[in-house]
Design brief:
alpha+beta; single chain; 4 helices; 6 strands
Length: about 140
């Protein structure tokens, strides 16, 4: 019998990623965790990073090569770092960032020292309806 009050996912303390090889290993482990724990009918899955200095960043990669970041208001202070890692000149309006997925390695190296923990998420609204039109 499964305890319905038990959380499905638990936060994992973060260990820093210092090199592109570290990030590639983390990506492979993260992808494996998603395959093992996320059902095919589930949507809004990704990872949530809790920042040591406050706020969260929810991240999802899409099939069409986009990296979606949902930066909570408490984490807006990290916007300059995201802009630098993605090599963009200004932050988007609102909290959703849509970046090419080739920015993932640079972004993870930049953010790594700021992350306290990570947790898998399911059912998060990554703004896909707003981005692609209502379905």
């Amino acid at each position: 019998m499964q305890d319905d009050n038990k959380p499905r996912f638990r936060p994992v303390p973060w260990s820093g990623l210092e090199t592109p090889a570290d990030v590639e290993l983390w990506i492979a482990e993260h992808d494996l965790s998603l395959q093992e724990h996320i059902a095919k009918n589930e949507t809004g899955y990704g990872v949530c990073f809790t920042l040591a200095e406050g706020g969260e960043i929810y991240m999802q990669t899409t099939q069409d090569g986009a990296l979606i970041l949902d930066v909570t208001p408490e984490a807006e202070w990290v916007s300059p770092l995201i802009m630098a890692a993605a090599r963009i000149d200004e932050a988007p309006q609102g909290r959703l960032w849509v970046l090419p997925d080739d920015k993932l390695v640079q972004l993870m190296i930049g953010l790594s020292g700021l992350i306290a923990s990570s947790i898998l998420v399911v059912g998060h609204d990554f703004g896909l309806r707003r981005r692609m039109g209502a379905w």
